[in-house]
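User: Succinate-semialdehyde dehydrogenase / glutarate-semialdehyde dehydrogenase. Structure?
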Amino acid sequence: MNTTTDETIVPALSRPELLRQSAYVGGTWLDVGEGPSIIVRNPATGDAIGSVPALDAETVRTAVSHAAHAFQEWRRVPAKQRARVLRAWHDKVIAHIDDLALILTTEQGKTLSEARGEIQYAASFIEWFAEEAKRINGDILPAAADGNRILVLKQPVGVCAAVTPWNFPAAMVTRKVAPALAAGCTVVLKPASATPFTALALAVLGEDAGIPPGVFNIVTGSARQIGDELCQNPLVRKLTFTGSTEVGRELMAKSATTIKKVSMELGGNAPFIVFDDANIPDAVAGAMFSKFRNSGQTCVCTNRILVQASVYDAFCHQFEHAVSKLRVGPGIADGIDQGPLIDAAAVAHLNELVADAEALGATVTVGGKSHSLGGNFFMPTVVRDVAPEMRLFREEAFGPIAPIVRFDTEEEGIALANDTEYGLAGYFFASRMDRVVRVFEALETGMVGINTGAISSEVVPFGGIKASGIGREGSKYGINDYLEIKAGVLAGAF
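Assistant: Predicted structure:
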């Protein structure tokens, strides 16, 4: 393993070897050598943390071949034994939570408290699917012909390619890899180039837990080159992706040539509706959590706050006061509520959205510009009087900007909420039960937070509709995308 260029993170780790500047193929660590590599930087400082190999297509094909070979053995491992391996992996992740959180914060930027929360969240998926491995049940169905039986068997789909984003570099890995391994599949993972070290640390712990060579592989390098190979390689039978809708469409199109199963968790434009019968302090607290977690860089973040006219001013005043108290700084520092954005392009995008909104008549009441800390830091921001013609209403900000929209009637609020191509998450606050039922049924999203801004857990089926994706992750439904259903008609046995 090469020595990292960061002078602080390695001494702070209780187990320094968790920071691997490598790819992981067929149980072998491919360290950075003389070939091309990708430098990974701390978004809070811009300093280099280290680098990982930029693998070529041939090495990615080798990883797929290792996964295909390992699949023939792993699929035959009894479910109870696979469950033991996953449970051991879970226990090792929890045992190394401090090291993992430090690596995550250093490469991604979120606060250490949020990073610790993400590691626990990531571990919960491993624990959940360790149990689900033992609950993959088939059926015996009644047959039309006397003496026949219809047998239904569920089998692992095969080699799975997983492409994960930078905003949750631990949880998005385990939410895909754990169900795949539980089902008996093998995985080739492409983590985001901005945040590969968390995934590699998880692989170190997986190796310790007894995941056999070739069952879990990690390839690093060009997203396009690796993506092309994973989509077009016929040995890969499933592709799971979390990221933008634009890239998701491209990956789906490329996967069509080999008729792969695909699951896509794509972009969002989550509405957060505050009705006139809402508990306003609760709504403010829910909006704060949903909007500013991970500096607004989550796919289920509140993207548009829709407030009924009669409570608009009361909500805005309380919300603006809360936002103005948020403390910004490096995620590793004490007492920080919001860390940096991932890169300079993200900051530039937010500045463009604010300028567009102001030009069309919106008013910035809190923040509204790059932070005085400079670099990738942006001020927590509130923008009042946002309208549908503004980019802030239409585009996913993916940052700490809270646009507030006024509406008059329940019907108008629902129409504004659904006025988007996306349908990942939505939220609303109301106390009347008839309204709760109506709005829950009317919102065009795969997930709905009702009087809460927190919807994610390993038990919840996570996913969207419309342009926000296909399939579900987590929950008892999350393993289904890694299984094929085989039917057998048995004649003459009775």
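Residues 16-266 form a domain with the Aldehyde Dehydrogenase; Chain A, domain 1 fold (CATH 3.40.605.10). The two ends are 62 Å apart (CA to CA).
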